[in-house]
Design brief:
Elements (H helix, E strand, L loop, with lengths): L1 H30 L6 E2 L49 E2 L5 H23 L5 H15 L12 E2 L1 H11 L15 E4 L7 E3 L4 E2 L8 H20 L9
Parallel strand pairs: 3-6
Antiparallel strand pairs: 1-2, 4-5
Length: 236
Amino acid sequence: NGSGFSMRAMATRWMSGRVLLLAAMMSVQFANAGICCNPIPFGDNSWCHRSNCLGAGCQLDDPSTPEDESLRQCSDITQCVCAGLVGWTTKSFCSIERSCKNAQADYDSAKKWIVDRTTENPGEECVKVLLNVVCAYHFPFCANDVLSYDQVCFSVCKAMNDTCGITLDKFAHVGMRCNFKKIDPNNIGQVTRGNQRCTAGGSRPGLSFPLLILPLLVVLYVEELRLRPRQVFNAG
């Protein structure tokens, strides 16, 4: 009946409005990340001259000195081991040089550990998953300056262990940041999972929420169209 349709339509419109409001709030949260929570400008040779540059390596002019620091050359971060692999916002934006240096050191240490035990250099697939972990570890995803996903996701850690036979504690300073904390030597399949807020190397976490919510918006829109009363035109 008419009242039943009206109630269903109102409920659908209310839910659509709530979902759209939530999507808008999340979009603003990711768009306005913060001071240090920003994308890494790996492809910008003048990254150190950006007005929002913070931390070591920035070359912004200091009015209190006779030298124009903004004329200094930026360090080359295009050669960073994680260049091209970090497509998300990260608070490592304020420590680009140090994060790149530490990522390279951990990557080299991991490769040495593998060679020492296998007498062979890591294969192509091992290098790929190893870099995913190293870059997720040193450039963790952030939603803003407060919320940072410092743990490396379970799937990425497990891929590194399955492919390379190595765990994070063998080369990183904080070995417990992998989302499985240890492997039971008596049962390799048993792992201890950490929390679900984590960074997965090689992906773009910042895009995940809009992509997940889009199908729900489509379903709600189609449902509203279905419930909308159809106009009937009489001939003559």
